What we know:
Distance between the termini: 116 Å
Low-confidence stretches: 1-28
CATH topology of the largest domain: Jelly Rolls
Shape: elongated
CATH class of the largest domain: Mainly Beta
Structural class: mainly beta
Mean pLDDT: 88
Helix content: under 10%
Amino acid sequence: MLRARTMTVLVMMCLVAWGLAAPAAAAGGRKAPALDKPRQGGTSLVFTGQARPRASVRLQVRARTGWKAVGRDRASRRGTFRITLGTPTRPRHYRVVSEGRTSRARAVEPVPAAAPTAAAKPKPTDACGTVLDRPGGGSYQCSFVDQFDGAALDERFWHVMDGTSTGAACMVDTPQTVAVSGGSLRLTARPAARADQCPLRKDGTRASYVTGSVNTFWKWSQQYGRFEARMKSQAVSFAGPQEAFWLWPDTRYSSDTTWPASGEIDIVENYAAYPHLAIPFLHYTWNDNGGAKHGLNTAWDCLAPRGQWHTYALEWTAERLTISVDGKTCLTNTAGATSFRKRFIMSFSQLLSGSGVNTFLGGALPPTTLEVDYVKVWK
Protein backbone atom coordinates (compact mmCIF):
# COMPACT_ATOMS: atom_id res chain seq x y z
CA MET A 1 0.00 0.00 0.00
CA LEU A 2 2.82 2.39 0.88
CA ARG A 3 4.61 1.49 -2.34
CA ALA A 4 1.44 2.39 -4.39
CA ARG A 5 1.12 5.82 -2.76
CA THR A 6 4.79 6.50 -3.35
CA MET A 7 4.39 5.71 -7.04
CA THR A 8 1.36 8.03 -7.32
CA VAL A 9 3.30 10.96 -5.87
CA LEU A 10 6.21 10.34 -8.21
CA VAL A 11 3.89 10.27 -11.24
CA MET A 12 2.21 13.58 -10.25
CA MET A 13 5.56 15.27 -9.76
CA CYS A 14 6.60 14.18 -13.26
CA LEU A 15 3.36 15.49 -14.79
CA VAL A 16 3.84 18.88 -13.17
CA ALA A 17 7.41 19.02 -14.36
CA TRP A 18 6.30 18.17 -17.94
CA GLY A 19 3.51 20.81 -17.78
CA LEU A 20 0.75 18.22 -18.15
CA ALA A 21 -0.83 18.99 -14.76
CA ALA A 22 -0.86 21.83 -12.17
CA PRO A 23 -1.39 21.95 -8.46
CA ALA A 24 -5.03 22.54 -7.53
CA ALA A 25 -4.19 25.80 -5.74
CA ALA A 26 -2.49 27.21 -8.85
CA ALA A 27 -5.40 26.45 -11.18
CA GLY A 28 -7.44 29.42 -9.91
CA GLY A 29 -4.59 31.48 -8.52
CA ARG A 30 -3.97 34.01 -11.34
CA LYS A 31 -4.55 37.47 -9.95
CA ALA A 32 -6.89 39.95 -11.66
CA PRO A 33 -5.14 42.92 -13.29
CA ALA A 34 -5.02 46.11 -11.21
CA LEU A 35 -6.01 49.51 -12.62
CA ASP A 36 -4.66 52.67 -11.01
CA LYS A 37 -6.63 55.90 -10.87
CA PRO A 38 -6.27 57.64 -14.27
CA ARG A 39 -4.02 60.72 -14.43
CA GLN A 40 -4.50 63.87 -16.45
CA GLY A 41 -1.64 64.42 -18.87
CA GLY A 42 -2.18 67.64 -20.80
CA THR A 43 -4.96 66.81 -23.25
CA SER A 44 -4.70 63.07 -22.53
CA LEU A 45 -5.83 60.63 -19.86
CA VAL A 46 -3.16 58.09 -18.80
CA PHE A 47 -4.10 54.63 -17.43
CA THR A 48 -1.50 52.51 -15.60
CA GLY A 49 -1.66 49.29 -13.59
CA GLN A 50 -0.39 45.77 -12.99
CA ALA A 51 -0.96 42.48 -14.84
CA ARG A 52 0.91 39.23 -15.32
CA PRO A 53 4.28 39.85 -17.01
CA ARG A 54 4.01 39.87 -20.81
CA ALA A 55 0.21 39.46 -20.63
CA SER A 56 -2.06 41.27 -23.10
CA VAL A 57 -4.15 44.02 -21.47
CA ARG A 58 -7.28 45.64 -22.93
CA LEU A 59 -8.80 48.91 -21.66
CA GLN A 60 -12.62 49.09 -21.87
CA VAL A 61 -15.18 51.87 -21.32
CA ARG A 62 -18.74 51.30 -20.22
CA ALA A 63 -21.26 52.18 -22.94
CA ARG A 64 -25.03 51.80 -23.21
CA THR A 65 -24.68 48.43 -24.91
CA GLY A 66 -21.98 47.07 -22.58
CA TRP A 67 -18.22 47.38 -22.29
CA LYS A 68 -16.35 48.66 -25.35
CA ALA A 69 -12.59 48.28 -25.98
CA VAL A 70 -10.81 51.63 -26.37
CA GLY A 71 -7.10 50.77 -25.83
CA ARG A 72 -4.58 47.91 -25.66
CA ASP A 73 -1.08 47.23 -24.26
CA ARG A 74 1.19 44.30 -23.29
CA ALA A 75 2.51 44.22 -19.76
CA SER A 76 6.24 44.60 -19.28
CA ARG A 77 8.53 41.99 -17.72
CA ARG A 78 7.72 43.54 -14.39
CA GLY A 79 3.97 43.35 -15.11
CA THR A 80 3.29 47.08 -15.59
CA PHE A 81 1.21 48.56 -18.42
CA ARG A 82 0.37 52.05 -19.71
CA ILE A 83 -2.50 53.09 -22.03
CA THR A 84 -3.11 56.69 -23.14
CA LEU A 85 -6.44 58.14 -24.36
CA GLY A 86 -7.67 61.55 -25.38
CA THR A 87 -9.34 63.45 -22.54
CA PRO A 88 -13.05 62.52 -22.29
CA THR A 89 -15.67 65.28 -22.40
CA ARG A 90 -17.60 63.84 -19.45
CA PRO A 91 -17.05 61.40 -16.55
CA ARG A 92 -16.81 57.76 -17.70
CA HIS A 93 -16.25 54.29 -16.16
CA TYR A 94 -13.24 52.21 -17.27
CA ARG A 95 -11.80 48.75 -16.55
CA VAL A 96 -9.00 46.52 -17.86
CA VAL A 97 -9.24 42.87 -18.93
CA SER A 98 -6.27 40.49 -19.07
CA GLU A 99 -6.27 36.71 -19.55
CA GLY A 100 -9.96 36.49 -18.80
CA ARG A 101 -9.64 38.43 -15.56
CA THR A 102 -11.20 41.87 -15.06
CA SER A 103 -10.19 44.75 -12.84
CA ARG A 104 -12.75 46.48 -10.74
CA ALA A 105 -14.39 49.33 -12.70
CA ARG A 106 -13.19 52.80 -11.71
CA ALA A 107 -14.96 56.15 -12.14
CA VAL A 108 -12.96 58.89 -13.80
CA GLU A 109 -13.13 62.30 -12.13
CA PRO A 110 -14.77 65.12 -14.17
CA VAL A 111 -12.39 66.63 -16.69
CA PRO A 112 -10.89 69.93 -15.42
CA ALA A 113 -12.11 73.05 -17.16
CA ALA A 114 -10.01 74.18 -20.06
CA ALA A 115 -7.59 77.01 -19.43
CA PRO A 116 -9.22 80.39 -20.02
CA THR A 117 -8.74 81.78 -23.48
CA ALA A 118 -7.30 85.18 -24.08
CA ALA A 119 -9.70 87.98 -23.14
CA ALA A 120 -11.81 89.22 -26.01
CA LYS A 121 -10.82 92.57 -27.38
CA PRO A 122 -13.06 95.22 -25.79
CA LYS A 123 -15.56 96.88 -28.08
CA PRO A 124 -14.90 100.49 -29.04
CA THR A 125 -16.79 103.28 -27.29
CA ASP A 126 -18.15 106.68 -28.26
CA ALA A 127 -20.10 109.48 -26.55
CA CYS A 128 -23.06 107.11 -26.02
CA GLY A 129 -20.91 104.39 -24.42
CA THR A 130 -20.13 100.99 -25.95
CA VAL A 131 -20.66 100.99 -29.71
CA LEU A 132 -23.82 99.00 -30.50
CA ASP A 133 -24.31 96.55 -33.35
CA ARG A 134 -26.89 97.59 -35.89
CA PRO A 135 -29.51 94.93 -36.83
CA GLY A 136 -28.57 93.60 -40.24
CA GLY A 137 -24.87 94.40 -39.86
CA GLY A 138 -22.57 97.29 -39.08
CA SER A 139 -22.57 99.53 -36.03
CA TYR A 140 -24.64 102.43 -34.80
CA GLN A 141 -23.06 105.88 -34.49
CA CYS A 142 -23.92 108.10 -31.52
CA SER A 143 -25.80 111.21 -32.67
CA PHE A 144 -27.28 112.63 -29.44
CA VAL A 145 -26.70 112.09 -25.74
CA ASP A 146 -27.76 113.93 -22.59
CA GLN A 147 -26.93 112.49 -19.16
CA PHE A 148 -28.57 115.45 -17.36
CA ASP A 149 -25.49 115.80 -15.14
CA GLY A 150 -25.56 119.57 -14.87
CA ALA A 151 -27.70 121.99 -12.88
CA ALA A 152 -29.84 123.25 -15.77
CA LEU A 153 -31.37 122.08 -19.02
CA ASP A 154 -29.09 122.39 -22.07
CA GLU A 155 -30.89 125.08 -24.08
CA ARG A 156 -28.91 124.18 -27.23
CA PHE A 157 -31.09 121.09 -27.61
CA TRP A 158 -34.16 121.46 -25.39
CA HIS A 159 -37.24 123.64 -25.65
CA VAL A 160 -39.56 123.93 -22.60
CA MET A 161 -43.29 123.94 -23.29
CA ASP A 162 -45.06 126.95 -21.75
CA GLY A 163 -48.75 127.83 -21.74
CA THR A 164 -50.15 124.85 -23.66
CA SER A 165 -53.16 123.16 -22.02
CA THR A 166 -53.41 119.36 -22.10
CA GLY A 167 -55.95 117.29 -20.22
CA ALA A 168 -56.51 118.56 -16.72
CA ALA A 169 -53.42 120.81 -16.67
CA CYS A 170 -51.29 123.22 -18.64
CA MET A 171 -47.57 123.10 -19.29
CA VAL A 172 -45.47 125.85 -17.75
CA ASP A 173 -41.79 126.71 -17.66
CA THR A 174 -40.91 127.00 -13.96
CA PRO A 175 -38.23 125.45 -11.74
CA GLN A 176 -41.04 123.61 -9.94
CA THR A 177 -42.18 121.83 -13.13
CA VAL A 178 -38.92 121.49 -15.13
CA ALA A 179 -35.59 121.00 -13.39
CA VAL A 180 -32.26 119.20 -13.73
CA SER A 181 -30.80 117.94 -10.45
CA GLY A 182 -29.14 114.86 -8.99
CA GLY A 183 -28.21 113.60 -12.46
CA SER A 184 -31.80 113.52 -13.74
CA LEU A 185 -34.28 115.60 -15.68
CA ARG A 186 -37.29 116.10 -13.39
CA LEU A 187 -40.72 116.94 -14.86
CA THR A 188 -43.41 117.54 -12.24
CA ALA A 189 -47.20 117.90 -12.14
CA ARG A 190 -48.57 119.97 -9.23
CA PRO A 191 -51.35 122.43 -8.31
CA ALA A 192 -51.09 125.76 -10.14
CA ALA A 193 -49.77 128.70 -8.17
CA ARG A 194 -50.89 132.29 -8.64
CA ALA A 195 -47.62 133.05 -10.42
CA ASP A 196 -48.09 130.39 -13.10
CA GLN A 197 -51.75 130.77 -13.98
CA CYS A 198 -52.89 128.64 -16.91
CA PRO A 199 -54.32 130.35 -20.02
CA LEU A 200 -58.07 130.58 -20.58
CA ARG A 201 -59.67 127.62 -22.34
CA LYS A 202 -62.43 127.88 -24.93
CA ASP A 203 -65.07 127.45 -22.25
CA GLY A 204 -63.62 130.33 -20.23
CA THR A 205 -62.06 128.17 -17.50
CA ARG A 206 -58.46 127.65 -16.53
CA ALA A 207 -56.70 124.44 -15.56
CA SER A 208 -55.97 124.21 -11.86
CA TYR A 209 -52.77 122.17 -12.30
CA VAL A 210 -49.46 122.68 -14.09
CA THR A 211 -47.02 120.17 -15.56
CA GLY A 212 -43.58 120.04 -17.20
CA SER A 213 -42.71 119.00 -20.76
CA VAL A 214 -39.60 119.44 -22.92
CA ASN A 215 -38.75 118.66 -26.55
CA THR A 216 -36.15 119.35 -29.23
CA PHE A 217 -38.52 121.46 -31.37
CA TRP A 218 -36.57 123.29 -34.09
CA LYS A 219 -33.30 122.39 -32.35
CA TRP A 220 -32.66 118.73 -33.16
CA SER A 221 -34.33 115.95 -35.12
CA GLN A 222 -33.44 112.67 -36.82
CA GLN A 223 -34.85 110.17 -39.28
CA TYR A 224 -34.37 106.49 -38.35
CA GLY A 225 -31.90 105.01 -35.86
CA ARG A 226 -32.08 103.93 -32.23
CA PHE A 227 -33.64 106.09 -29.48
CA GLU A 228 -33.19 105.07 -25.82
CA ALA A 229 -34.07 106.60 -22.44
CA ARG A 230 -33.92 105.41 -18.83
CA MET A 231 -36.87 106.74 -16.85
CA LYS A 232 -38.85 106.33 -13.64
CA SER A 233 -42.53 107.22 -13.24
CA GLN A 234 -43.52 107.99 -9.67
CA ALA A 235 -45.70 105.40 -7.94
CA VAL A 236 -49.05 106.95 -6.94
CA SER A 237 -52.35 105.68 -5.54
CA PHE A 238 -54.69 107.67 -7.80
CA ALA A 239 -55.49 108.01 -11.51
CA GLY A 240 -54.36 110.94 -13.61
CA PRO A 241 -50.55 111.05 -13.91
CA GLN A 242 -49.41 110.18 -17.43
CA GLU A 243 -45.78 110.17 -18.58
CA ALA A 244 -44.45 109.90 -22.13
CA PHE A 245 -41.26 109.50 -24.17
CA TRP A 246 -42.35 110.25 -27.72
CA LEU A 247 -41.40 111.51 -31.20
CA TRP A 248 -43.18 114.08 -33.39
CA PRO A 249 -42.53 115.22 -37.01
CA ASP A 250 -40.05 118.07 -37.44
CA THR A 251 -42.21 120.65 -39.27
CA ARG A 252 -39.10 122.31 -40.72
CA TYR A 253 -38.71 119.36 -43.07
CA SER A 254 -42.25 118.12 -43.70
CA SER A 255 -45.77 119.47 -44.02
CA ASP A 256 -47.86 116.33 -44.20
CA THR A 257 -51.56 115.85 -43.64
CA THR A 258 -53.10 116.48 -40.25
CA TRP A 259 -52.62 114.30 -37.20
CA PRO A 260 -52.74 111.31 -36.73
CA ALA A 261 -51.84 110.52 -40.35
CA SER A 262 -48.94 112.97 -40.05
CA GLY A 263 -47.29 110.46 -37.70
CA GLU A 264 -46.42 110.13 -34.01
CA ILE A 265 -44.23 107.55 -32.27
CA ASP A 266 -45.06 107.08 -28.60
CA ILE A 267 -42.13 104.93 -27.49
CA VAL A 268 -43.81 104.67 -24.12
CA GLU A 269 -46.79 106.13 -22.28
CA ASN A 270 -47.19 105.31 -18.60
CA TYR A 271 -50.63 105.69 -17.00
CA ALA A 272 -51.25 105.67 -13.24
CA ALA A 273 -54.45 103.67 -13.86
CA TYR A 274 -52.24 100.87 -15.27
CA PRO A 275 -49.39 100.94 -12.72
CA HIS A 276 -47.60 97.84 -14.04
CA LEU A 277 -47.65 98.61 -17.77
CA ALA A 278 -45.66 100.61 -20.30
CA ILE A 279 -47.83 101.27 -23.35
CA PRO A 280 -46.34 102.12 -26.77
CA PHE A 281 -48.53 103.58 -29.54
CA LEU A 282 -47.89 104.31 -33.22
CA HIS A 283 -50.08 106.88 -35.00
CA TYR A 284 -49.87 106.79 -38.80
CA THR A 285 -53.31 106.47 -40.45
CA TRP A 286 -56.18 108.96 -40.64
CA ASN A 287 -58.28 106.84 -38.25
CA ASP A 288 -55.46 105.27 -36.17
CA ASN A 289 -56.12 101.89 -37.80
CA GLY A 290 -59.65 102.00 -36.44
CA GLY A 291 -58.43 102.11 -32.86
CA ALA A 292 -55.84 100.45 -30.65
CA LYS A 293 -54.81 97.04 -31.99
CA HIS A 294 -52.50 94.94 -29.86
CA GLY A 295 -49.45 93.85 -31.82
CA LEU A 296 -50.03 96.35 -34.64
CA ASN A 297 -50.02 99.91 -33.31
CA THR A 298 -49.90 99.26 -29.55
CA ALA A 299 -49.20 96.57 -26.94
CA TRP A 300 -50.78 95.72 -23.59
CA ASP A 301 -48.26 93.28 -22.15
CA CYS A 302 -45.11 95.37 -21.64
CA LEU A 303 -44.37 95.13 -17.92
CA ALA A 304 -42.80 98.20 -16.28
CA PRO A 305 -44.01 98.80 -12.69
CA ARG A 306 -44.13 102.42 -11.59
CA GLY A 307 -41.64 103.54 -8.97
CA GLN A 308 -38.79 101.64 -10.68
CA TRP A 309 -36.20 102.58 -13.29
CA HIS A 310 -36.82 101.15 -16.76
CA THR A 311 -35.06 101.47 -20.10
CA TYR A 312 -37.22 102.17 -23.15
CA ALA A 313 -35.87 101.91 -26.70
CA LEU A 314 -36.98 102.30 -30.31
CA GLU A 315 -35.14 100.82 -33.33
CA TRP A 316 -36.50 102.54 -36.42
CA THR A 317 -35.99 101.91 -40.14
CA ALA A 318 -38.13 102.64 -43.20
CA GLU A 319 -39.60 99.12 -43.05
CA ARG A 320 -39.70 98.33 -39.32
CA LEU A 321 -40.24 99.93 -35.91
CA THR A 322 -39.33 97.84 -32.85
CA ILE A 323 -40.02 99.08 -29.32
CA SER A 324 -38.53 97.35 -26.28
CA VAL A 325 -38.72 97.69 -22.49
CA ASP A 326 -35.69 96.65 -20.44
CA GLY A 327 -34.30 94.83 -23.47
CA LYS A 328 -37.47 92.82 -24.12
CA THR A 329 -39.27 93.43 -27.42
CA CYS A 330 -42.71 94.91 -26.82
CA LEU A 331 -44.03 95.92 -30.23
CA THR A 332 -42.89 95.38 -33.80
CA ASN A 333 -44.56 97.17 -36.71
CA THR A 334 -43.69 96.34 -40.33
CA ALA A 335 -46.37 98.42 -42.08
CA GLY A 336 -43.69 100.61 -43.70
CA ALA A 337 -45.93 103.67 -43.33
CA THR A 338 -44.82 106.82 -45.18
CA SER A 339 -45.76 108.77 -42.02
CA PHE A 340 -42.54 107.47 -40.44
CA ARG A 341 -40.20 108.23 -43.35
CA LYS A 342 -39.11 111.69 -42.24
CA ARG A 343 -37.32 113.51 -39.43
CA PHE A 344 -38.86 113.55 -35.95
CA ILE A 345 -38.16 115.63 -32.85
CA MET A 346 -37.95 114.07 -29.36
CA SER A 347 -40.15 114.84 -26.33
CA PHE A 348 -40.52 114.00 -22.61
CA SER A 349 -43.75 114.87 -20.81
CA GLN A 350 -45.32 114.64 -17.36
CA LEU A 351 -49.07 115.07 -17.91
CA LEU A 352 -52.44 114.76 -16.18
CA SER A 353 -55.06 112.84 -18.15
CA GLY A 354 -58.40 114.52 -18.69
CA SER A 355 -60.38 111.66 -20.22
CA GLY A 356 -60.74 107.89 -20.17
CA VAL A 357 -59.92 105.42 -17.44
CA ASN A 358 -56.91 107.46 -16.32
CA THR A 359 -58.91 110.69 -15.81
CA PHE A 360 -57.67 112.85 -12.94
CA LEU A 361 -60.68 113.51 -10.70
CA GLY A 362 -59.34 116.72 -9.20
CA GLY A 363 -58.73 117.72 -5.63
CA ALA A 364 -55.42 117.81 -3.81
CA LEU A 365 -52.54 116.72 -6.05
CA PRO A 366 -49.25 115.71 -4.40
CA PRO A 367 -46.38 116.76 -6.69
CA THR A 368 -45.87 113.86 -9.12
CA THR A 369 -42.56 113.62 -10.96
CA LEU A 370 -41.14 111.85 -14.01
CA GLU A 371 -37.36 111.35 -13.73
CA VAL A 372 -35.20 110.85 -16.83
CA ASP A 373 -31.70 109.51 -16.10
CA TYR A 374 -30.42 109.81 -19.67
CA VAL A 375 -31.43 109.83 -23.31
CA LYS A 376 -29.22 108.50 -26.12
CA VAL A 377 -29.74 108.39 -29.86
CA TRP A 378 -27.79 106.56 -32.55
CA LYS A 379 -28.00 106.67 -36.34
